[in-house]
């Protein structure tokens, strides 16, 4: 049964479990990444991205309606291809980089895996931002939500990019200067992800406002938040313990601290 049909039927109990099953499979596959090598690791990478992108579309469809799920897929794919194609051709906004052939078929020079990776990252980032900004003033809530989502989106990449460079999936022509402890990815990449994140999240916020079914989300946010939490903090653990990337591990934890503090403050306020 497709996510669209499930959403029209009001998300029965079995359907509500599907995002959690996908998130669980994603976590288990991510655990396998540092334990694998060679072509097996490439297969694990593809599996992670496919599971993550599927989780995003399914959760969006079940929580906000089939229109939102379908529109999310189209919006993120087109935005990713546009930014990445321009980046490859001009070096803006990320800096000069190139993809390796191991990522397979491309469109405008962009491997098919890349828009799926954006999709995997985009929806959980927006969902977390929505949760973080619920108590913001109504007049400022949308701007705060977009800024928070772009921050989470870019922070996720701070952990992910050094791992992908290490795997040989892409390389930078001029990796310096970079964040302290990360010598393979330039600061221009972070600036580019912040810009791309702001554009994408502004579009995504508008998309949800115009396509979502009326009322609150039909299912909870546990699945995408679990995926996001594991891929950032769990990724930081893998970087420090198995992959020999202590710099990106430290930055992943540091960038997560503001989010964790906001969540802690909100949890404390609810208990009072």
TrEMBL record:
<keyword id="KW-0812">Transmembrane</keyword>
<feature type="transmembrane region" description="Helical">
    <location>
        <begin position="43"/>
        <end position="62"/>
    </location>
</feature>
<feature type="transmembrane region" description="Helical">
    <location>
        <begin position="221"/>
        <end position="243"/>
    </location>
</feature>
<dbReference type="InterPro" id="IPR007354">
    <property type="entry name" value="CruF-like"/>
</dbReference>
<feature type="transmembrane region" description="Helical">
    <location>
        <begin position="249"/>
        <end position="269"/>
    </location>
</feature>
<protein>
    <submittedName>
        <fullName>Putative membrane protein</fullName>
    </submittedName>
</protein>
<keyword id="KW-0472">Membrane</keyword>
<feature type="transmembrane region" description="Helical">
    <location>
        <begin position="190"/>
        <end position="209"/>
    </location>
</feature>
<dbReference type="Pfam" id="PF04240">
    <property type="entry name" value="Caroten_synth"/>
</dbReference>
<feature type="transmembrane region" description="Helical">
    <location>
        <begin position="150"/>
        <end position="170"/>
    </location>
</feature>
<feature type="transmembrane region" description="Helical">
    <location>
        <begin position="112"/>
        <end position="129"/>
    </location>
</feature>
<feature type="transmembrane region" description="Helical">
    <location>
        <begin position="69"/>
        <end position="92"/>
    </location>
</feature>
<keyword id="KW-1133">Transmembrane helix</keyword>
